[in-house]
């Protein structure tokens, strides 16, 4: 009780979320850069507000912590899970080898294959964000809202991930604040 009165004990749950988010960003960045150097294709789908349970059900359910080693093993060629997409919900790998709807956009470059069409397809019908590694060139790309951004370097990749994970954290705090406000009858 004395420590609480002096402020010696602090709520560290927010700090733990920040640490976990930073860990996830490091793991995903390290994995994608490694796959890019080796020209191993990859497709990661990040669930946002719209749930992707139907996509999870098309793959092999994992529900595991995110680690660079696990992601690299999933995408290793000639292994059972390497084809398809990995679906990530928050800091969990929910499933691997998932099937995605393909974009039917006519303006997609001919040099882009099925992986990029799938990445665009899921972002045209949901608010998901996808990260892609091209096996032909090693180029890292991002698809969001049906638009493709290519040639992400380490800095750009980290910024994309940090904005996603910061936004997730911010929306959690906003939801908790709104819930608290409603409980108190609208007065904050």
Protein architecture, described:
Helix 2 runs parallel beside helix 4 (68-75) and helix 2 packs antiparallel against helix 6 (154-183). The two termini are 27 Å apart. It is built from six helices and seven strands. A hairpin with a 2-residue loop joins strand 3 and strand 4. It is of the alpha+beta class and 188 residues long. The chain has helices spanning 2-6, 13-38, 53-56, 68-75, 114-125, 154-183; strands at 42-46, 60-65, 85-89, 92-98, 129-133, 140-144, 147-149.
Number of strands: 7
Give the overall shape, derived from the CA principal axes: globular
End-to-end span in angstroms? 27 Å
Secondary structure category: alpha+beta
Residue ranges: pLDDT <50 for 5 or more in a row? 1-15, 172-177
Rounded to the nearest angstrom, the radius of gyration is 19 Å
Helix % is 40-55%
Spatial strand sequence of the major β-sheet: 2-4-3-1-5-6-7
Q: Could you spell the SSE succession in H and E letters?
A: HHEHEHEEHEEEH
Helix count?
Answer: 6
- Strand content range: 15-25%
What's the story with the biggest beta sheet? 7 strands, mixed
Mean pLDDT, all residues: 85
């Amino acid at each position: 009780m004395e420590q609480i009165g002096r402020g010696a004990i602090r709520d560290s749950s927010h700090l733990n979320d920040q640490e976990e988010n930073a860990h996830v960003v490091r793991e995903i960045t390290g994995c994608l850069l490694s796959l890019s150097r080796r020209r191993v294709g990859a497709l990661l789908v990040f669930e946002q507000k719209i749930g992707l349970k139907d996509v999870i059900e098309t793959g092999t359910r994992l529900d595991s912590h995110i680690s660079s080693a696990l992601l690299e093993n999933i995408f290793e060629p000639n292994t059972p899970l390497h084809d398809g997409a990995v679906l990530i919900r928050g800091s969990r790998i929910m499933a691997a080898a998932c099937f995605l709807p393909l974009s039917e956009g006519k303006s997609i470059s001919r040099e882009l294959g099925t992986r990029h069409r799938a990445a665009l397809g899921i972002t045209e019908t949901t608010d998901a964000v996808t990260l892609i590694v091209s096996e032909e060139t090693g180029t890292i790309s991002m698809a969001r809202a049906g638009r493709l951004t290519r040639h992400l370097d380490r800095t750009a990749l980290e910024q994309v991930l940090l904005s996603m994970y910061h936004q997730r954290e911010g929306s959690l705090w906003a939801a908790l604040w709104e819930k608290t406000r409603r409980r108190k009858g609208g007065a904050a």
